[in-house]
Specification:
Elements lengths: L1 E14 L2 E6 L2 E7 L6 H13 L3 E2 L5 E3 L1 H4 L2 E6 L21 H19 L4 E2 L6 E16 L4
Parallel strand pairs: 3-6, 6-7
Antiparallel strand pairs: 1-2, 1-3, 1-8, 4-5
Helix pairs in contact: 1-3
Length: about 150
Amino acid sequence: MRVVIQRVSSASVTIYGEVKSSIGAGLLILLGVGDEDDEADIDYLVKKTAALRIFNDEEGVMNRSVMDTGGDVIVVSQFTLMAATKKGNRPSYVEAAGHEKAIPMYEEFCRRLSAAIGKPVGTGEFGADMKVALVNDGPVTICIDSKNK
């Protein structure tokens, strides 16, 4: 399971011209689910994401988490994060989980992250053509792969 975490001033997800989710300051998380992922991958990434200290404290040092700041979160499913690019120029997605596995894993990640931060998590729509807008704050972008602990 892979996440790309972006510290944002604002972010939104629009589907078919309608805003599905929008937030102010917080995190925009892109989530890719692999065929080999399980509950342990969800646990690891939820704990890591919720506690990740990438927000500035009073002295301008990145020392606070989204839980500390009360920031908002949007999680967007993105199977392309599982792309294998070693051979040729066309990415392979054979490592990405199919819908039957990826959807429940995505939904469970969102549920657990919401519980961890103590507030609802905005979402996209699995498999939809989404337009994601964001103002990356910093910029701060962190990539985490649960298989690289």
